[in-house]
Amino acid sequence: MKPAMRPERLNPLFAETGSLKGVGPQLARPLEKLGLTRVKDLAYHLPDRFVQRRAVENLDAASVGENILVALTPVEYRSSAGRGPFRIMAADAIGNVVALTYFGRNGGWARKQLPLGERRWIAGRLDQYGQMLQIVHPDHVSEEGGAALGQLCEPIYPLSEGLTQGRVAALVQQALSALIDLPEWIEPGLLGRMGWPDWKQALTLAHRDEHREARERLAYDELLANSLALMMVRNANRARTGLALQGDGRLRAKLALPFGLTGAQKRAIAEIEGDLAQAAPMLRLLQGDVGSGKTVVALEAMLIAVEAGAQAALLAPTEILARQHHETLQRMAAGTGVEIALLTGRDKGRARESILMGLLDGSIDMVVGTHAIFQDAVAYKNLAMVVIDEQHRFGVGQRLLLTQKGRRTPHCLAMTATPIPRTLTLAQYGEMDVSRLDEMPPGRQPIDTRVIAVERIADVVGALSRHLGGGEQAYWVCPMVRESESDDLAAAEARFAELKARFGDAVELVHGQLKPEAKDAAMERFVRGEAKLLVATTVIEVGVDVPAATLMIIEQADRFGLAQLHQLRGRVGRGSGKSVCLLLRGDALSETARERLALMRETQDGFRLAEEDLRLRGGGELLGTRQSGDTPFRIASLEQIQRLLPLAHDDARLLIERDGGLTGERGEAARLLLYLFERDWGVQLLRGG
Ligand code: ADP
Ligand code: MG
């Protein structure tokens, strides 16, 4: 697909960070790790929090534990023997003495900054060490008070290895000075009512202090962009025509399922059948917890398409899942005579050619695969139905666009195991129709979940040993909250080495930084049962099905969110046997972490856990923490999403109803917004994408 042209006036914002002063290749990498590749990314790199300091005339006016700014004069250097810290004793205006304490090899540098007898402005946290007042590693040392006053409220930015606060702050300032004036896209009445600043001002203010209105406005912008784009997808979809698919039931009747469908499954299938019978393309989300039986619903839906003489495709996020789905579908549909092919990026040469032929001449009824099934070279005779599995792993909009190729728009069923709360459903999927599988197939045994202190890890390894000895498989999950965190990776590798030393070749390791082939190979050994223990970071979250794996151990479980723990735990308990999940916890647990782990023990209802997760994380956020993974937002916090999304949604709807082509003054402004938040796939649809 050709990218629509970005309006030229936005170019300064989309200039690479390399164009900024002082950014060489060395800085480019850590910036990239934070997703900061363009000027606008830096402008939107909002502080996690601010350090508030109080300027005091002398230490009598300050209290221990306080962040202060004070003028001090160094009076004595004290090196300690061995590996002790280096201290500079410094006096305030009335003779109180405080130790400026430096650990490590900072002595030389500290001396240079703090010559004896010369007054300096020191910013830092006042602590008490025994009888002595001290400031450990002052945050700033300035020669004159004027500069120091700028440090009274200091933004603290998210960093990656190789970056410092000072560096990031300076780059952000450069980015802010490159901001241009943009026309307003927020409805003027709303803007006035909320007391929000304009866009440029909001960005500037949000970096300066805890400016609630500024921060809100930026969050709202992001929510509005998302709502607009999703609504445009939805409208474009409604405006298209698909093929009304009326199945006669002859293939579905030949399905030999070893079980009866649950009520929820039957309901979902009926809803899908109703959609398919219309010419307007279906856009439906099938939401169902891990193990709730989405695959068979997908199969029935696809069979309806085939009964109606059309083709159906199932898109999986990974090769492994594609293969697993292919096997499952073939097994379930064995009696129907339906031809089901598997197509992944790995297929080359003759095999690939023959699949392509089959799709073109219609001898293949169904295809399962990765995004390879939508490449330009792949042409279908009559593709009328697309199922997208584990949708949350993709950008929703892009995926939907992919399905829009061809003369007719296929019906689309998106499936997700993430039981997100209703507000977030709206954020992720806009106004898609939703079917929920809120009933588990019968006979599932609850997963025995226990919380164990990490000190008892030897016992845990013992239990694991007995488990593996009994011929069963297990997962060992190490936290890797961000895939870029090198400490986490090192910890996972160390754990793997330890377990491998004990259990030998039966242990495999997978993490996000492995090459896809290596990851697939390791996973496959586990799926086939050759590997008995899979040590993994959160990459196993996505739908792998290994019924023989009945034990899961999650290290540092307190670091995971509830929803994520739930997703992970869903990997076990997939067979008929009893499954166990051991949550290892550290000893300094926050109240929230404690509550989270207790809830995990208490319930297995994904929807309930999702709502609780939102509640636990939504409260008490001062500035709002950047979201990763489970929401499509970088700026808006969970609390802001809940509060502002309905507004943004209504606003987007009004705008589109009045000016669907986004050609009026506000419409043009809204287009800029879509580019800013990289929802320009919405704009592409306007051009008939
Ligand atoms: P998910 O929703 O996680 O994709 P699957 O479709 O993989 O779940 O189903 C999980 C397991 O449950 C599979 O082994 C499947 O065969 C089985 N299953 C699905 N529906 C039923 C049912 N109605 N009764 C019993 N077992 C079922
Ligand atoms: Mg599945």
Mind explaining what this structure looks like?
With 689 residues, the protein is an alpha/beta fold. Among the domains are: 107 residues, Nucleic acid-binding proteins (OB fold (Dihydrolipoamide Acetyltransferase, E2P)); 186 residues, 3-Layer(aba) Sandwich (Rossmann fold); 157 residues, 3-Layer(aba) Sandwich (Rossmann fold). It has 24 helices and 22 strands. The strands form 4 sheets. Strands 12-13-11-14-15-10-16 form a 7-stranded parallel β-sheet, sandwiched between helices. It has a 6-stranded parallel β-sheet with strand order 17-22-21-18-20-19, with helices on both faces. Strands 3-4-5-7-6 form a 5-stranded mixed beta barrel. Helix 18 links the parallel strand 19 and strand 20. Helix 8 packs across helix 9, helix 9 crosses helix 15 and helix 9 packs across helix 22. The chain is globular. About 2% of the residues have low confidence. The site of magnesium ion has 3 residues, from helix 11.
The Rg value, from CA coordinates, equals 29 Å
Shape: globular
Find the CATH topology of one domain.
Rossmann fold
Count of helical regions: 24
Strand order of the largest sheet: 12-13-11-14-15-10-16
- Amino-to-carboxy terminus distance: 7 Å
CATH superfamily placement of one domain: P-loop containing nucleotide triphosphate hydrolases
Number of strands: 22
Proportion of residues in extended strands: 15-25%
Output mean pLDDT. 87
* CATH top-level class of one domain: Alpha Beta
Stretches with pLDDT under 50, minimum 5 residues? 619-629
**Helix coverage percent:** 25-40%
Bound ligands, each once: adenosine-5'-diphosphate, magnesium ion
What is the correct CATH architecture of one domain?
3-Layer(aba) Sandwich
Question: Sheet with the most strands?
Answer: 7 strands, parallel
Structural class: alpha/beta
